[in-house]
Fold this sequence. Notes:
One of its GO terms (biological process) is proteolysis. With about 450 residues, the chain is of the alpha/beta class. The protein is built from 16 helices and 19 strands. It folds into two domains: about 15-100, Leucine Aminopeptidase, subunit E, domain 1 (3-Layer(aba) Sandwich), CATH 3.40.220.10; about 140-460, 3-Layer(aba) Sandwich (Aminopeptidase), CATH 3.40.630. Helix 14 links the parallel strand 14 (about 350-355) and strand 15. Helix 11 (about 255-265) crosses helix 16. The two termini are about 30 Å apart. The relative contact order is 0.12. The model has no long low-confidence stretch (mean pLDDT about 95).
Amino acid sequence: MFPRFADSAAPSRPLFVVQEADLAAWRASRPPTEAAWLEATGFAAGLGELQLLPGPDGAVAGAVAGLGAAPARARGRFHLASVAARLPEGVWHLDTALAGADLESEALGLLLSAYRFDRYRPQAAQRASFKAPEGVDVARIEAMAAGEVLTRDLINTPASDMGPEALEEAVIGLAARHAAEANVIRGDELLAQNFPMIHAVGRAAAEAPRLLELRWGEAGPRLTLVGKGVCFDTGGLDIKPSSSMGLMKKDMGGAATVLGLASMIMTLKLPLRLRVLIPAVENSIAGNAMRPQDILTARNGLTVEINNTDAEGRLVLADALAHAAEEETDCLISMATLTGAARVAVGPDIAPFYTDDEAVAAALSGAGAAMADPVWRMPFHAPYEAMIEPGIADLDNAPKGGFAGSITAALFLRRFVGEARYTHFDIYGWQPSDAPARPKGGVGQGARTILAALPEVLGL
């Protein structure tokens, strides 16, 4: 069930939103009994502070939430979501001076505060629901929330129920909901149709590897999204230690995120032609698993030396990107939970991206700030190209030395996109601990930023 705003005609109580600097003036504007109550209870409008307001009959007539001061707000996002779970049951509406991007962000946070992953265990529902604040684009916010919920549900589902076959079903289901076209290339047919690296990575798993494709839209600029769909990653023969394998159900976070973004685009009926490609595999161990120092020939003819079977994501993406680049596109974007190096560089909360296009970079950077979806540009640093050239083959999938791991992975991918206008996101796809509107677990990164940047990037 995707979160939606409450019926605008429903009876509701006000949730006043007050910054610390405005508290005195706002309190003076309230009825004397209410002002006295707020002073007696010590309400100071601190960030996340909540005080219920009694009515003449003793029932809850409303509530006031504190927004603190700007420095405190800068340390987080979706601040009103932190009070949503503490409100009494019923419908609420915001009474606030917030406007523009700030108001839209808080409205989205209120919707996402209701998210629960309850597939395996019932979860207590949030008692409060909210009307859409005046002045926001309701359809857009609900579409973003629905796309984010899809992404979270896909990532949170363990590999026992979210292998390549289930990911295929998710793509087909999304296509059916939006009258889109879905196509699947599966198993040995990947070899017949020249996707050798997707096949090599996934051939040792119980479920066959596959390339999933979704197409939607008949007119407008062309947007191609490619998402890494490694449904579980053991590391292959270069097996991960258990401490590193524990979160590998999220290794299809790139696929989950592009599907969430595709959901937003199709729900909003943006005037473009959308193509989504997802190489869906499980990186497992068996007698037919790829081996260290094997050399594979990619779809575009480049040879790749496998110096670590745990650097498999870039292999499946390479074939998918080469396939994407064979068809005209105005913008090609890949998203992947690709490297631990990206987490070392920017931590779990920021999605680094790579592009050679200055206009795309500016659009994404501006949109990330406006959408409470932080991103950071990283360089396609050409002097590091030599690090991905092993000598015995055209490319090395796991350069030695440990330096610049996210950059070298991005440079590797860039070798497969030809002349396409290309951007790569190296995301984490996981919220390590509970935060407002972002419970611990799977999370989308970069999708809202891309959605907001599309009008500028594609001239919509």
